[in-house]
Amino acid sequence: MNPMDLRGLVPAPVTAFTSDGEVDHAANADLARWLVSVDGVKGLVCLGHAGEGTYLTAEEQVALIRTLVEAVGDRVPIIAGITGEGTKTAALEARRAADAGAVGVLVYPSHGWLRFGFQPGAPQERYRAIHEESGLQCILFQYPDVTKATYDLSTQLEIAAQPGVVATKNGVRNMRRWDTEIPVLRQNFPDLQILTCHDEYLLHTMFDIDGALVGYGGLAPEPLVELIAAGKAQDYARAREIHDRLLPVTKAVYHRGSHMEGTVALKIGLRARGILKDATVRQPLQPLGESAVAEVESALQQAELI
Q: In degrees, to the nearest 5, what angle opens at C-alpha 128 toward C-alphas 124 and 130?
């Protein structure tokens, strides 16, 4: 197995819909081609939260993966979010993704764990079953510390040791844990690629990572590639400059009443940038009002993205 090289920006783009709510395959292909045209983009993750993956049918999920694979060819790997609740259903979901041409999977925790927590060993078994069933490379997804689906360090280490696990997407949003756990992961698994997914806290994690796997990358790939480069160069002044230029966009997209509203704002932003023609979302997401549209457009202007 040749591990995916994710040492750069890995956007998790939105899923484009037509005005009547159907998956717009032409628009999704155009979005993918635009993203991979940016130097420094190393992969695309579909079917995650930003991509409304859990709102698509299984047939729609497979068709979207095929569309993206066809659109980007062998330029970057297509990585599918795996969100099936049970271990068997998640493994079969990964098999469908592999058959559709995906190279890797971002493995979400079973969503029941968000409320009730997980039994020791259950996450490890989830990754084992997914890799064995599909043969796909896996990204360990570390959920925020405020949820019961966040993995303790020993669980992370055991998952990272399993065959097929090539990276971790860390969104713990607890800097104490970040500062103490990331060095241990690096020491034990030097080849494990560390990817931040702290869309709204990127500056604070930018100096410890190999790359960023973020929905934000689907809207502002150009400055985020620059931010990653500044972080790797340990150039705080340059990183801070980029962060501050993007801060109005960060606030307009992610500093909202619900983090899920970020998906809606991302689509509004892509429409404002001329990348998407339509900002339609699927329920339970709801459209944002005209004031939010004006806010997003103003923020993009301040960041010199439109």
A: 120
